[in-house]
Amino acid sequence: MSEVTTPTLQYRCDGPEEAPVLILGPSLGTTWHMWDRQIPELTKQWRVFRFDLPGHGGAPAYPGGSVGDLTVRLLATLEGLGVQRFGYAGCALGGAVGLELALRHPERLASLALIAASPRFGTADEFRQRGVIVRTNGLDPIARTAPDRWFTSGFAAAQPAITEWAVQMVRTTDPGCYIAACEALASFDVRADLGSVGVPTLVLVGSDDQVTGPAEARTLVAGVPDARLAVVPGASHLVPVEQPAAVTDLLVRHFSTAWQPAFEAATGHIALPAVQVQAGQVVVPQQTGPVAEIAAVPPHPQGGGPDLYETGIKVRREVLGDAHVDQVLAQTDDFSGDFQEYVTRSVWGGVWDRPGLDRRTRSCVTLTALAAGGHLEDLAVHTRAALRNGLTPGEIREVLLQAAVYCGVPAANSAFRVAQQVVREETTPQE
């Protein structure tokens, strides 16, 4: 028998070894160096732990396909260092890891800062489309447009060295790990769970962030019970890079005053200091954070098995995209409703969710069958799905060549015409 070990993360530590630990989590496409200008001040009070995402900054390329997986890897790395309790600040995807920690591992977290973060990052379609672009064209198109997403135009023009650093940081990332991180963001959605975040939370955002801006920040503040909002003027998505002094000051103030007391696993409550009696009065010492009960994650209901409709709609969205599924559901009425429910339950919740074939293989089979039957409208839909499921344009070409042999040249000719147009649309980078 072989023992399966959890891959750990590439990291570095700065600051006094005996100080409390503060973790800084990076954004997609960046490295721990995005926090360089916060380190001198933060290390005066904390042992600062920074990490790289898989395949970023020269880290080992073990792709992590979900935020939960990245969080497990972070905790495994901390276990190896003997770190049990810490504060956490994360930017964008790093912020998603912070939310996952707060929801699934609250006993480890003393305080939280979410920077340029959101309970759901755009739409799943947007990130899966980005994965298609990278799989087809490599990371260069994403790297060239990174400064437009990350910085205000004035900053990018005034700081050409930092702008070029940003481009090279993305360009040197492992493409497979970047695609996996896009998938992690595509499937991340904790909007319904924000009320269970039980630690003091700073939500920090750049006023000009066009990726996850003030609207997303306000959603976090409205949902997290103990959250405060800070909007940094004149900054875009990578606000720690663009406005380092302002971000550093906000982090120091937050983590200095909102470090929550330790969690007691036996009772499920935050530990209270011992009370003191003075002149017959009970005196509770002032707390550095709110007293709160940590809500347990409810167990799955026993019996009955999974809901095939819920499973099916999830798989259907993951494969075909939110936009397509939303359009189909919007057109559903009393006449077609039963059919759409049947398709969702039986096709997507039943067959597509079976473990016997992976989704790449199922896409190959589906494309062949649709080409053979001449179902060109569905072929276009499933060509997009095949790209999302990880097939390259070259692999789709080979599937249709195989179909030409066994299904006939006329059927393959029509299929090539449809697939060619879809591939062109889906793999052309948007300037």
Describe this structure in words.
- The protein is α/β, with parallel strands linked by helices and 431 residues long.
- The protein is 49% helix and 11% strand.
- The protein is built from 18 helices and eleven strands.
- Strands 1-3-2-4-5-6-7 form a seven-stranded mixed beta sheet, with helices on both faces.
- β2, α1 and β3 form a beta-alpha-beta unit.
- α12 crosses α13, α16 packs across α18 and α17 runs antiparallel to α18.
- The longest helix has 19 residues.
- The termini are far apart.
- About 9% of the residues have low confidence.
Write a short abstract of this structure.
By secondary structure, the chain is of the alpha/beta class.
Largest sheet: number of strands, sense, barrel closure: 7 strands, mixed
Over all CA atoms, what is the radius of gyration? Answer: 24 Å
Please report which band the strand proportion falls in: under 5%, 5-15%, 15-25%, 25-35%, 35-45% or over 45%: 5-15%
Q: Residue-averaged pLDDT, rounded?
A: 88
Structural class: alpha/beta
Strand order of the largest sheet: 1-3-2-4-5-6-7
**Helical segment tally?**
18
| Topology pattern, helix = H, strand = E | EEHEHEHEHHHHHEHEHHEEEEHHHHHHH
Q: Give the CA-based shape.
A: elongated
Percent helix among the residues? 40-55%
The strand count comes to 11
- First and last CA, distance: 51 Å
Sequence stretches where pLDDT stays below 50 over 5 or more residues: 267-305
